[in-house]
Write a structure and sequence with these properties.
The chain is mainly alpha-helical. It contains five helices and no strands. Helices cover 62% and strands 0% of the residues. The longest helix is centred in the C-terminal third of the chain and has 14 residues.
Length: 86
């Protein structure tokens, strides 16, 4: 499965987007980690790979970023998750 197929099967995760074909991998990772269930997360990781998913997440949650769009509890959980698994 490709990332675009993944997105089209889960439009409820991307309610804020009119054209699902224009989503970046970064936007997909952010939405899935924030709003998806763990099955969505596992499927995303199987598509992008654990290293790429981790790299995107860490870039998006870097302390020097002025704005982080993740919920604080999501950041906390996935920092530990990716530290243990990536």
């Amino acid at each position: 499965m490709k990332i675009d197929e993944f997105v089209k099967k889960r439009p409820y995760l991307f309610w804020y987007v009119r054209d699902l074909d224009k989503l970046s991998e970064e936007a997909v990772v952010e939405s899935v980690l924030n709003y998806g269930d763990f099955d969505d997360v596992k499927k995303l990781i199987s598509i992008l790979g654990i290293k790429k998913t981790t790299r995107i997440f860490r870039k998006q949650t870097h302390p020097r970023r002025k704005r982080v769009n993740y919920y604080p509890e999501i950041v906390h959980y996935f920092k530990h998750y990716f530290h243990a698994h990536a």
